Amino acid sequence: YGVFLYPNSNWNQPELYFDGLGVDHTSGVIGSFVTTTSPTSRDIVRLYKRYVMPKSTWLPSSLSDVAQLWDVFGLPHLVAMDNGAEFISNATTIMLLMSGVVILRIPPRRGDLKGTVERCINTVESRYIHHMPGYIPKVAVGLNPKYSKVRERAKSAARLTVQEYEHQLAQHIIEYNHEKHPHLKIPRIHVYRNGLEMAPPLLLTGQIQQRLTFALTCEVKLTREGVEVETLRFNSEDLHAAYRSYSGTVVVKLDPDDVR
Questions:
Q1: Are the beta carbons of 89 and 100 closer than 8 angstroms?
Q2: Measured between alpha carbons, how far apart are the two ends of the chain, in Å?
Q3: Which residue blocks in 133-178 are alpha helix, DSSP H?
Q4: φ, ψ for residue 233 (rounded to 5)?
Q5: How many Cβ atoms from other residues are within 10 Å of residue 256's Cβ?
Q6: Quick check: helix, strand or coil at residue 86?
Q7: What is the C-alpha to C-alpha distance for residues 2 and 187, in angstroms, rounded to an integer?
Q8: Which of 56, 77, 55 is nearest to 198 (CA)?
Q9: Per-residue pLDDT at 260 exceeds 50
């Protein structure tokens, strides 16, 4: 599904955004989300970082009550992903390997192996997102002229900014996490918390380790002007000194949250 949103209150035209969810397989709780116009490895890094870190580190202060109830954090033992370009990128793989995670690639055309996350997405869509202004179903996303009027109506109905939408989505996630697990008949968040007694959560230690792990790893050419990563140019005294003695490519770490 997609939702037409305004990037901020000063924007005149809404743009089409998509959600990404990080879901715990055993308990079914949602551990993180991202909202983006075009999913890339940058969004996967942010999604994983938001899953691992305590929610108070990235949720706005106005959602402090949500952060207290959303106590899903810590390094997972295994991460299962499909074969989308943003998932199999070097930046995503390096990030997961640096945090000691086992990577499980789901074979192509095996949707039956993604039942937990697919059911979660369908529930969130039908119960919460479907009623929001600007929503369009998956079938209408794209350029198919058959659904052009559906897209036009959704675009004209858009009212929310990205920030307003994310505030509502975070509150809906708390509601979803506190609903009963379909098989265990206790709240999903209780299933997750009970599991912590057997496997306490682990976190990366130190700000430098966090910034190195949750970063995009890019190999770029070093020039007199420094380096250029994703249309952004960086330079420093160290890079300039390296350029004077070395001509070639360098490996750059870019924290997605450093650039807005």
A1: no
A2: 24
A3: 148-157, 162-177
A4: -110, 135
A5: 20
A6: coil
A7: 28
A8: 77
A9: no
Instruction: Give the up-direction half-sphere exposure of residue 233: CA atoms within 13 A in the CB hemisphere.
Output: 5
93 CB burial (10 A radius; 0-12, 13-18, 19+):
middle
Compute the C-alpha angle 46/234/96, nearest 5°: 30
**H-run or E-run covering 2:** strand 2-5
Token duo for residue 161 = 């900014």
Tokens of 152: 């036009």
Split at pLDDT 50, 70, 90, the class of 257 is low
Amino acid in position 77: H
- For the chain, helix (H) and strand (E) counts, in that order, are 9, 10
Residue recorded with tokens 């450093």: 258
**Structure tokens that stand for 213 in this block:** 């792990």
Identify the residue with better confidence: 113 or 11: 11
Rounded to whole angstroms, the Cα distance separating 190 from 24 reads 13
* Mean model confidence pLDDT for the chain: 89
The answer to whether residue 231 scores a pLDDT higher than 80 is no
Tell me the three state secondary structure of residue 89. coil
Question: Residue 257 contacts by C-beta under 8 Å, 6 or more apart in sequence?
Answer: 46, 49, 58, 214
